[in-house]
Amino acid sequence: MKSYNSFIQRHLSKYPLMEKLDIFKLLYQDNLLVNHFVDPLNVLVRIDNELNSFIQNSNLSDENIYEYLSDTTVRVNIFNFVKYFKKELLAELFLKTTKIQPKNNLKKEVEKYDLLDLYNKYLTCAPSHSQIYRDNYHPSYRVVASKLLDASIKARNLQNFIETIRNDSLQIIALEGRCGSGKSTISKMLKDVTVIEMDDHFDSVNDPVNVEYIASLLSSLKVGDTILEKCYDCHNDCYYYKEKEIKNIVVVEGVYSYLDSLKKYYSHLCYIVLDKELQIERIKNRKNFNQFIEKWIPREEKYFDEFDFIKNADILI
Prior knowledge:
10 strands, three-stranded antiparallel beta sheet, 317 residues, single chain, alpha/beta
């Protein structure tokens, strides 16, 4: 499974002291979610206890609110989450996750990674992280189904990333993701950035987007300038202009923003993760649903297959 390999590689890059047990735990959590009895009355107490321990023992430099185990599962960083949201919300997300039917595909997945010995060892109990992992990374999280993360949580995670890279110079960020992943919604929630929408540059002649104009636009941006962005209205087949002030962070939002011919203009790549089942659920009520299914999604999938966004993005949203 390409996506599993990519997610595991991200974790190995971030946590180079990971052992086989930690990889097994990743697969275990993704496949079984919360595979044990959970006392709802005790969830908040345990979160409080972990917060107290985490504050005393952990390096707090990582601002990620969550990180993906797969396209359907995340580990939510308890400490970073409660800096922006109520701990009761985290408890709610965790409890909702316990009610989701697990994948129960663990044995098949661990065989691919030569971890069958660990599978047999943990048939009756959940694994803990390796000692070296706990000593160096101080994990304190809750496993949550990614579909339960709303746009406000995702936007906060992206905003945190933006603030870690912000300086006086111009930085252009590509915000990629499948249709229905929430790119437009999330980008509108960001603070102190300039957003350029790829949908404004759909081009039936230079299908799917007007790369030449976008490249010219990105190459000419200067912090503090006010520009007139030439946009195409595909419904009325006409052009119009949007006036925009260029901030030191420019977010180019939309599918095809990270085309090979545009990559040189970006300082960072952000990718919004979306599993295909949730994608269909989100777009099924659109008027042009059949066109998405028959034309746009297959074209997008070919594009996403040509580059490993999961492995190479600076952050997964």
